[in-house]
Structure formats: structure tokens, C-alpha cells
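DM from R.C. (forwarded with permission)

"hey, sorry to bug you on a friday — could you get me a structure for this? deadline for the figure draft is monday and I only need the backbone to look sensible"
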Amino acid sequence: MSSRRLPVSAVAHESCGGECDASRRSFLQQAITGAAIVTAAVFADGTSLPIGAIEALAAQADERKYPIPAGDGVNIDRDNQVILVRYQGAMYAFNLSCPHENAALRWREGDGRFQCPRHQSKYKPDGVFISGRATRNMDRLGIRRDGEAVTVDLSRMFRSDTDAAGWAASVVKL
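My reply, with the result:
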């Protein structure tokens, strides 16, 4: 895991006249407070699917290793353009880009789905196309279980319209 330091936001620094204690402890306290307020999508059955950021535990060539989350949720690794989803006993890895025109997909907490901001294509948490201009499901990346982690192969992208079997197989059952 990366040990880089996270910057204190300029807005927070200016709000105290430039004399803030930018210590690690104060940053962590703010981060914990923010994490406690994370919003979640609530589905009709009462379950929720929180969203968060994730970083690869390890990288080797075109593969990235991620921890398996303890519960259902959406995690985004912007650096590697990966969306990881744990949903109803399965793990999926998606390309961050919409298959229609490559805009970065967004998770809509209140609706429990992904949506393209450009042309409003909508997708279920498992990547299945619902509606909009896109003509296929979200693109899945190769994924396999590796102990208490999953390994995502960034070089293996499966499109549901050209490789339906590969797309369907790109899932880890938990």
C-alpha cells in the first residue's frame, strides 16, 4: 500500500487564517469524521451500497491486487481507471469509462446504479445496461481471487457485445 502523505486542503487551511495545525492527527480525525458521513444507496430491499476510494495493494505489469471488501460496496481506483464492486456475493471489476463515449461513469447513491454524465446511460451494480444511448453493458476487466484479495488484469477487457462468454465469466463468486 502507498505511504504517500495526503495534502491538507487549501480551503481548510485558509479558513483558519493560515495558522492551522496540519498535523497527521488532525487530518486523520477529519477523515474519520468524513468517513462516518459516507452516503449509501438504499435499494428497495433495504440494503445499501456505499462508495469509496481504493488503491491497489500491489502492481505487477498489467495486474493490480485489491483487498476483498468486508461488505457490499463500490470502490474506485482513479489512478488505474478501475471500478471494483462487491454486490450480492460477487466481485466485479469494471473499466471506469462508459462504453458509449468513454466518459467517466458515476455511482448514483440515491438510485443504486451507475450513470454516464454525458448521455445518461444507466447500469446496474453488476454492470448490466438499463437504458440510455449506450448499446452494451459496462466493460468488465479480468478478475480472479487471490486468497483474501482479488487480482484485476487491466490488459483483459471484456465487452458484452463481442465476447459474451468472457464478460459473463469475469466475476469472482464469494
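R.C.: lifesaver. The two ends are 23 Å apart (CA to CA).
me: no worries. The helical segments are 10-14, 24-35, 164-169.
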